[in-house]
Specification:
heterodimer, A: about 240 residues, Rossmann fold, 6-stranded mixed sheet, 7 helices, B: about 800 residues, alpha+beta, 11-stranded mixed sheet, elongated
Chain lengths: ~240, ~800
């Protein structure tokens, strides 16, 4: 068992989107009547062209945005009904997020960046330190613990971001273009990392343009076009290659 | 002219103006802060400089027009002759003289009914001057009503000196045959050289009657009389020119000017302090705002430069963005300063029969010009930085993650190890990310906290002054023994005989008070007016009987009355008489004399602070009625005042005295000062708070991406608010701790200057007003200002859209 053990039973739906639409102003909807379920242990890749609604979908699941219609349930929590504080607590306790540009705090060390979600959640100091050390070791970046992110390579920074995302043992890991700012070698490392995490049972939702990434680490791929689900490869682990072949 | 030789179309001619206007419109909060800070600074400065200059204007004008006397000399007629006095015109430094004029102290009784007083009222003693002509080279007395006295039986009264209008008849009851004089005119001498004038022949007649107390007045103008030292030198030359002790008293025009403008002058020191604080705060706020504007608009500057703006235009654009709101603040400050000056100056103008003055125009020009110059100077530094920015670097600003100083990282590391919630730790470390900005903000908060400390001290001091300015205000009950009413020192008497309302027997009153249950302690006072050597005109005497120490005015130096033959006076009195604590004063009344030794200097402003406090035995020595006309009573602790009064009134009914609760009215000057201090403090604190707000807004904007990250990681709105507020709270707390001693020091410097303004030394209790119960909350003043300023942007930060923040560069 890795440090990323999921908290939800393997067959239970972690994400349940029902008839979700999101409109910004009078233009066409960014998401249009999307219904989607993600079960625990799945690695879902959301692909599609720019403006297809990928980031909107991710923001809705992360509780960073609210749907204009429909419901978003994650781990049994109606995310669309949470207030600001509830959303923050939800993000802190149930999800981890990885971004294209890492979004590490430059003036905190790697160790302090990783500790941050636990500290915000009020985790006991000793427990948080132990968990951070475990993650840094597991992700192979413990030698950089005292370094500042600016001194690390892109791949290393993204590993730090992953460690931070896993700090509070989230049921769901959301990754927004996690290899988008990396060179090929670093991107490969991150792909392996995500694949490994999913293999250990971590549920992952991945938004990406990188079809190779989707192909290698997603168990299921959903393609969005103009805010609607154009294709869904289904949720069978063996189906990993179906959408990208 | 453009290179093409064509004038550009009007609407395109001033891109600089449009950039300035757009910048001002875009930063509404910062613009409001700059308007408010300059408004406050200019208001206080215009008031301070304006009052200093304008308060003197009516006196200066009247003094010049009437060829006022630089020195009024009073001479003992038994020690010097008129001829000898006339020769003092040749003394060193004397430019012109008037006199010698015969002076005679008299007591008068109204001999006719008037709208002011009925016949038969004894007036306080006053001095009559024999003067043939109101004009001359010195002290051209202005007749404001009626005409000058030209013959026997006529008298001209100084304006406001006695309650008798033109046409009233006054009987000089102490003169042989009780001659009756008719008031033929009311006149005004700019330095108050006399209380009444008669024709010289009339004065000679009165002199013969009054005998020993008669003397002479000489009025002098000196070639050099700008300062106290100049006037003192002139007086020394005159003293040397006459026999020893012949000069019995003198009065400098500077003393008169100081008395007449005292109230307005008392405003100047604290207004000047607020003005300087305001100007310094303006400089800080402008520096914060413009530095922030340059920092936040680096890419915009790059775009402007790419479009062809030369560095000088960029500099002008940013200086303009400070000057535009500052100019608005200056205009508003001018209007407010002038409006607030009207009531204060009106009071001064009225004293000189001058129209209500306004602040001189040059002050309205110089003060805002100075303020704008400071603002331009403060804006210039960051504007020059903007002008020197390289276009390419400016265009690329924000695209790379900015490094922070090592101190910021160390601070974050350190606070991460503190046993504090992480949001608080992150906030505490924030000031180290931009030390210069934090330092400027700390200075702004410190100025605000200095101002609050100073203002609280001022209010406490004014409270002490308010409480102690009136004599006999310590008791809770006053018993009046009767004797009618009239002007100070007067006694209402029937034209032909006894007092209209006989005075109650003080012994009986005292016996009733002693027997009354609930009486703690009490003392009696009697009032009179006498002549004091060295003091022009009559001096009010308040004579104490019994244990009066508990109700005594606050002593500045020396001690309170301990026995007969002692006196306590104010600094104003000491200066006017040219004496000091330890000296002896000679009092005269109706040909009788008494000496009192000054044992203490006290503070009170009742009777313009010119009353002489002594024991009732002094009045008895002068042959005056020494029976107390009033008793001040302090009841025992826990006594029901209403019940006590009811019972006491019943007991006093048979004695003929009346008891009432002690009441005290407020000084309108102190009330005005309190209001002004409150308003200026509020404005300055608001500016300091807005300075904090502006800094936090800038920080929040610059760190919006970090905020987004933290919120994405699960930072709740409450944690966000805590982090942002903590980021300024530490700085505010430190600034407050530094500000309190500074504010106390400023208060201790300004309060004595305010005392000087009114010609008084203030008691220690009015200066040492701070105690721990004030200092501890004041020390938290900086924290309060910082938190108040940081709360609003903190809530904005808490509401920042996380997804948008994460996308920001």
């Amino acid at each position: 068992m890795t440090p990323t053990a999921p908290a939800v039973a393997p067959t239970a739906p972690v994400i349940d989107l029902r008839g979700v639409s999101r409109r910004y102003g009078a233009g066409p909807p960014a998401l249009d009547d999307v219904t989607l379920s993600v079960r625990a242990g799945e690695a879902l890749a959301v692909v599609g062209p720019s403006g297809s609604g990928k980031s909107t979908l991710l923001n809705l699941v992360a509780g960073l945005d609210r749907p204009s219609a429909g419901s978003v349930t994650v781990g049994g929590v109606r995310v669309d009904e949470l207030n600001e504080t509830g959303s923050a607590r939800y993000r802190r306790d149930r999800i981890g997020m990885v971004f294209q540009f890492f979004h590490l705090l430059d003036d905190l060390t790697v160790h302090d960046n990783v500790l941050l979600p636990a500290q915000l959640a009020g985790m006991p100091r000793a427990e948080a330190r132990g968990r951070a050390a475990e993650l840094l070791r597991h992700l192979g970046i413990e030698r950089h613990a005292a370094a500042y992110p600016g001194l690390l390579s892109g791949g290393e920074r993204q590993r730090v971001a992953v460690a931070r995302a896993l700090m509070n043992r989230p049921v769901l890991l959301l990754a927004d273009e996690p290899t988008g700012a990396l060179d090929t070698a670093s991107g490969e490392q991150v792909r392996e990392l995500l694949t490994g995490l999913n293999a250990d049972g971590q549920t992952i939702v991945l938004v990406t343009h990188d079809l190779a990434l989707a192909r290698s680490c997603a168990t299921r791929t959903v393609e969005l076009v103009d805010g609607r689900v154009a294709r869904d490869s289904g949720n069978v682990p063996d189906h990993r290659q179906a959408m990208t072949s | 002219m453009s290179p093409t030789g064509l004038r550009p179309p009007t609407r395109l001619r001033s891109p600089l103006g449009r950039v300035v206007r757009a910048g001002v419109a875009r930063r509404r909060v910062q613009t409001a802060v700059m308007v408010l800070t300059t408004l406050m600074a200019v208001t206080a400065s215009v008031l301070a400089v304006g009052l200093l200059v304008a308060a003197r204007a009516p006196f200066d004008r009247a003094f010049a027009a009437q060829q006022g006397a630089h020195l009024t000399g009073q001479f003992d007629g038994t020690k010097v002759t008129a001829e000898r006095l006339a020769r003092t015109a040749d003394a060193a430094g004397v430019a012109a003289v008037a006199g010698p004029f015969r002076t005679v102290p008299v007591r008068a009784r109204t001999a006719s009914d008037s709208a002011v007083l009925p016949a038969g009222v004894d007036l306080p003693p006053f001095t009559v001057v024999g003067r043939a002509d109101p004009g001359g080279p010195v002290d051209r007395v202005r007749t404001v009503e009626g005409r000058w006295a030209t013959g026997p039986g006529e008298i001209v009264l100084a304006d406001g000196a006695l309650p008798a209008p033109v046409g009233a008849r006054l009987a000089l009851r102490t003169a042989p045959g009780a001659p009756t004089l008719t008031v033929v005119g009311i006149a005004r001498s700019v330095t108050g050289t006399a209380q009444a004038w008669v024709a010289p022949a009339q004065a000679e007649t009165l002199t013969a009657a009054e005998g020993t107390a008669a003397g002479y007045d000489m009025l002098y103008r000196f070639r050099q009389a700008e300062t106290d030292a100049d006037v003192a030198a002139g007086r020394a030359a005159i003293t040397a020119a006459v026999p020893r002790d012949a000069l019995s008293g003198s009065r400098s025009y500077l003393t008169v000017e100081q008395e007449r403008t005292a109230n307005a002058r008392a405003f100047v020191p604290f207004l000047a302090a607020f003005g300087v604080l305001g100007l310094l705060l303006s400089v800080l706020v402008v520096a914060i705002v413009i530095s922030g504007a340059v920092g936040a608009a680096t890419r915009r500057i790059g775009i402007l430069k790419a479009l062809g703006f030369i560095p000088a235009q960029v500099v002008r654009a940013y200086v303009g963005q400070a000057l535009l709101p500052a100019a608005v603040g200056c205009l508003l400050g001018l209007a407010l300063g002038n409006a607030l000056a009207v009531p204060v100056l009106g009071e001064v103008g009225e004293a000189f029969d001058a129209p209500v003055t306004t602040i001189p125009l040059w002050i309205d020009g110089v003060v805002p010009a100075g303020a704008l110059l400071l603002v331009a100077g403060a804006a210039l530094l960051p504007a020059l930085r903007a002008g020197r920015l390289r276009t390419v670097a400016a265009l690329g600003a924000g695209r790379t993650e900015g490094g922070r100083p090592g101190s910021a990282r160390s601070a974050r590391r350190l606070t991460g190890r503190l046993p504090l919630p992480r949001a608080v730790g992150l906030g505490l470390a924030d000031p180290f990310a931009r030390p210069a900005r934090s330092g400027t903000m700390a200075a702004a908060v410190a100025f605000g906290a200095v101002c609050v400390t100073f203002a609280v001290g001022l209010a406490l001091s004014l409270g002490v002054v308010q409480e102690g300015r009136m004599l006999n205000s310590a008791g809770s009950v006053v018993v009046q023994t009767g004797g009618g009413s009239g002007p100070p020192g007067a006694q209402v008497v029937h034209a032909g005989g006894e007092a209209e309302t006989p005075k109650a027997d003080p012994e009986k009153v005292a016996a009733v008070l002693r027997a009354q249950e609930g009486t703690g302690r009490f003392y009696g006072t009697a009032g009179a007016e006498v002549s004091v050597r060295g003091i022009t005109g009559a001096t009010a005497v308040v004579a104490y009987q019994g244990d009066s120490a508990w109700g005594a005015p606050r002593t500045v130096s020396g001690r309170w009355l301990g026995g007969p033959g002692e006196a306590v006076v104010t600094k104003r009195f000491l200066d006017a008489a040219g004496v000091a604590v330890g000296d002896t004063l000679r009092l005269t009344e109706g040909g009788r004399q008494a000496s009192v030794r000054i044992v203490g200097e006290a503070f009170f402003t009742e009777g313009e602070g010119m009353a002489l406090l002594t024991s009732t035995s002094t009045l008895a020595d002068l042959g005056l009625d020494a029976r107390p006309g009033r008793y001040d009573v302090q009841t025992e602790a826990g006594t029901d005042l209403a019940r006590y009064l009811g019972s006491l009134r019943g007991e006093l009914e048979g004695v003929g005295a009346v008891a009432q609760a002690s009441t005290e009215d407020s000084s309108s000057v102190i009330v005005a000062m309190d209001a002004l201090i409150g308003m200026l403090t509020l404005m300055l604190v608001a500016v300091a708070g807005l300075g904090v707000l502006n800094t936090v807004v800038l920080d929040t904007r610059e760190r919006v991406r970090d905020l987004g990250i933290l919120k994405a990681l699960g930072m709740t709105p409450r944690q966000t608010v805590a982090m942002v507020v903590t980021s300024v709270a530490g700085t505010g707390l430190l600034a407050g701790l530094v500000a309190v001693p500074a504010g106390v020091a400023l208060h201790h410097w300004i309060i004595p200057l305010m005392g000087d303004g009114v010609g008084m030394n203030l008691p220690t209790a009015a200066v040492s007003v701070y105690d721990p119960q004030h200092l501890i909350p004041l020390a938290l003043g900086g924290l309060a200002i910082a938190v108040a300023g940081g709360l609003l942007p903190a809530s904005w930060a808490a509401r920042t859209d996380t997804a948008t923040a994460l996308r920001s560069e």
